[in-house]
TrEMBL record:
Its EC number is 1.4.3.-. The active site is at D203 (proton acceptor), Y291 (schiff-base intermediate with substrate). It comes from Gossypium mustelinum (Cotton). This is Amine oxidase. GO terms for biological process: amine metabolic process; response to abscisic acid; response to auxin; response to jasmonic acid; response to putrescine; response to salicylic acid; response to water deprivation; response to wounding. Contains 1 topaquinone per subunit.
Length: 557
């Protein structure tokens, strides 16, 4: 993994390189306006063996802190991280102007115009009795019917473990998940130029999501009454350091409904029953270079866990000679501002979900919806759907590519634990963010990231198999990935197994992404299936006016 020391050392290399200084002078850029960053180099063949290399790209920070929008296009150096020697120098873009700094500064204090909208009044959730959750021993979270362990990790960012939910009938704590976290983050860009082809990042294994996390911003990243947790990590020389306020924990109420029903139109019953949905959120945000990633693990009182990933920050842009594109189809992405191309790219987040439904030994079930034809004269209906269950015997049975017209539900069950009706207790994964990688399997970035070849995998638990891209990701060749492990085709029926899910985004940039992107969010759910004997929040209390403080706005007083 790249360390801060690696990044700082490589960033200084260009300034002592004669070819680089000559090119910068020819472009008319003062060296004092430059900032250089070393993105990872990927792996593209045996000529890169035996060296720990990085690419170095540079930007102009003149008149803006948003230097990402001012690339020195076509200028790239390959640097040996051990010797700090420039192994290769490429300078192909001198005819491309450096984009202007106009309107690139995203800071609130830099805005000179008012937003063209009606102002929003301040809003906040009041908790007159304080939050309902508590944190014991610094990491054990207890809230409503949930208990789990929460910690910061230098590579995964946020790790949820020992997740238990209380049974709605007898109050006993029951196992749901041993450990869950973002195992790898694959971001390939779709440009073949010399200064772009290698941009296919694996953010967790190459940089570290936890190492890239900066303190969360109170009231903006996290609401009032949030609890903050630090990360304790090691520097390259082994000394501990604190990453402050890296995780926040808070209760969310956004006017959503847990359940409801009304009667009165067609019967004598006059019923109005509804319950507010209050959830508990554990959040972490990583700023990996230009991109910001927001990770939420949201716990509901009905036993559902909602895992969400938000994308914000700055695009990785390419300098262009064009103010208006004559033919955008010939470019690697659309123009998002003058002289700036937003290069098409993907984001794939692969999650390690070590489910322990009522214990360690579980099975994976594909519940396939199959269309059946009705028999002649059987019904006015011609067709209907039937659920057919298939228990995966081995790993290859659980290699799943999602298909819109061949739908399934995917259950993790405990075959040894049954409900009163005889159904195995379980949870299902409800997919979201279902974009799939379209790269050829022999393309070097895809070889390294073959864990995105399927959306779902199931493997036997192995303590050495936690990172989907392999333990040692930097300049890896794809010989120690989830895809390699799964080809061993071990038995997974009634075993201690791990569910892997890949959340995917295709990103075709647009002008609204400039100069900073509005957050785009997707995710997936882990939802109980026959885990409880009935609706676990049937007896939850509604909200009453007397529960809440009396607040008056100044306009109404």
């Amino acid at each position: 993994m790249l360390s801060v020391d690696d990044i700082l050392a490589a960033s200084k290399v260009p300034f002592s390189n004669a070819e680089f200084n000559k090119s910068i002078a020819a472009r008319g850029v003062p060296s004092s306006d430059l900032i250089c960053l070393p993105p990872s180099a990927g792996w593209f063949g045996p000529n890169e063996e035996g060296k720990r290399v990085v690419k170095v790209l540079c930007y102009s920070k003149e008149s803006t802190p948003n230097f990402y929008m001012r690339p020195i296009e076509g200028l790239v150096m390959t640097v040996d991280l051990d010797t700090l020697e420039v192994l290769k120098f490429s300078d192909t873009g001198r005819e491309i102007p450096i984009p202007k700094s106009t309107d690139t500064d995203y800071r609130y204090t830099a805005q000179t115009k008012e937003p063209q909208m009606e102002p929003l009044n301040p809003i906040s959730i009041e908790q007159p009795k304080g939050p309902s959750f508590r944190v014991e021993d610094g990491h054990i979270v207890k809230w409503a019917n949930w208990v789990f362990h929460l910690k910061a990790d230098h590579r995964a960012g946020l790790v949820i473990s020992r997740v238990m939910v209380r049974d709605s009938e007898n109050g006993e704590l029951r196992d749901v998940m041993y450990k869950g976290f973002a195992s790898e983050f694959f971001v390939p860009y779709m440009d073949l130029d010399e200064s772009w082809y290698f941009k296919s990042y694996m953010d967790a294994g190459e940089y570290g999501l936890g190492m890239s996390a900066l303190p969360l911003v109170p009231l903006n990243d996290c609401p009032r009454h949030s609890y903050y947790m630090d990360g304790i990590f090691a520097t390259p020389d082994g000394n501990p350091f604190v990453q402050p306020n890296m995780i926040c924990l808070f209760e969310r109420y956004a006017g959503d409904i847990s359940w409801r029903h009304s009667e009165g139109l067609l019967t004598d019953f006059q019923i109005r029953e509804a319950r507010p949905k209050v959830t508990l959120v554990a959040r972490m945000a990583a700023s990996v270079g230009n991109y910001d990633y927001i990770f939420d693990w949201e716990f509901q009182t009905d036993g559902l866990i909602n895992v969400k990933v938000g994308l914000s920050g700055m695009l990785m842009v390419k300098g262009s000679p064009y103010h208006q594109a004559p033919n955008q189809d010939a470019m690697s992405g659309p123009l998002i501002s003058e002289n700036l191309i937003g290069v098409v790219h993907d984001h794939f987040v692969t999650f390690h979900l070590d489910m322990d439904i009522d214990g360690a030994n579980n099975s994976f079930v594909n519940v396939n919806l199959v269309k059946e034809r009705s028999l002649p004269g059987e019904s006015p209906r011609k067709s209907y759907l039937k659920a057919k269950r298939k228990i995966a015997k081995t790993e290859k049975d659980a290699q799943i590519k999602l298909k819109l017209y061949d739908p399934s539900e995917f259950h993790m069950i405990n075959p040894s634990k049954r409900s009163r009706l005889g159904n195995p207790t379980g949870y299902k994964i409800v997919p979201g963010g279902t974009a799939a990688s379209l790269l050829d399997h022999d393309d070097p970035p895809q070889l390294r990231s073959a864990f995105t070849n399927n959306q779902i995998w199931v493997t036997p638990y192995n303590r050495s198999e936690q990172w989907a891209g392999g333990l040692l990701t930097y300049q890896s060749r794809g010989d120690d990935t989830l895809a390699v492990w799964s080809e061993r085709d071990h038995s997974i029926e009634n075993k201690d197994i791990v569910l892997w899910y890949t959340l995917g985004f295709h990103h075709i940039p647009c002008q609204e992404d400039f100069p900073v992107m509005p957050t785009v969010t997707s995710g997936f759910e882990l939802k109980p299936v026959n885990f409880f004997e009935s609706n676990p929040i049937l007896r939850a209390a509604p909200a009453f006016e007397t529960d809440l403080p009396v607040c008056r706005s100044s306009a109404s007083s």
